[in-house]
């Protein structure tokens, strides 16, 4: 290697060893000079913010507000209508699902048409200004058979007593049955209606109260051909009018539990 070449290489090494003016200035200002500062903390913050994405709290609030509205409409309507106790109005459904009423109305009618075309066992009907699922009429016997045969639990003593009063005093109102038994029997009557043992049979002319009678199913369960085959038990029952009169003359009042099956004499507990 010639001396000239060696000198050139040595000069290049010395030049590389010397800091550039800009680098030297940055070193003297601790790396925070004006040019670097313009792209320093603020820029770093901007980059950090862009990497982090939207604020988590804001995103959470948006999900909470828009969650229901983001659901697919028809499945959401089906889910809600599965649990309603009475027909749901379009206004209520629109409020719950955060949609316009027109969207709700169109979707409900489309669902009803789909069920009809598919000949499903249920149908979606508009009744009393509200929508609700109903069993299709041609499958009512199957449902009735399932409901009645599925209730294998024996009747309580209270239900048997109430059924006996209806059987011997029919047609009879709930108030008269309660008067004979000395306790409110609304809950027990609902049970008997659900079991298909009693049914509504007109109204009392004077008061308009609903009257109840036993059903053909009642006769079938007891193995009777008619009510005339019931044992002679009516003479042992007090007259309903007499019982109602006595109930106003110091007859102990009773408390009934939620099921209507237990009676508690308040006069006994007060002494």
Pick out its properties.
271 residues, mainly alpha, Arc Repressor Mutant, subunit A, two-stranded antiparallel ribbon, 15 helices
Task: State the gist of this model.
With 271 residues, the protein is mainly α. The protein has helices spanning 3-17, 21-28, 34-38, 41-52, 56-66, 73-81, 90-97, 101-118, 140-150, 157-169, 174-181, 186-194, 216-222, 240-246, 266-270, and strands spanning 122-127, 130-135, 172-173, 198-203, 210-214, 254-256, 263-265. A hairpin with a 6-residue loop joins strand 6 (254-256) and strand 7 (263-265).
The CATH architecture of the domain at 157-259 is Orthogonal Bundle
Quickly name the level 1 CATH class of the domain at 157-259: Mainly Alpha
General form: elongated
**Structural class computed from helices and strand pairing:** mainly alpha
Number of discrete helical segments: 15
The pLDDT mean sits at 73
Uncertain runs:
5-13, 19-65, 246-271
Cα-based radius of gyration, to the nearest Å: 41 Å
N/C terminus separation: 128 Å
Strand order of the largest sheet: 3-5-4
* CATH fold type of the domain at 157-259: Arc Repressor Mutant, subunit A
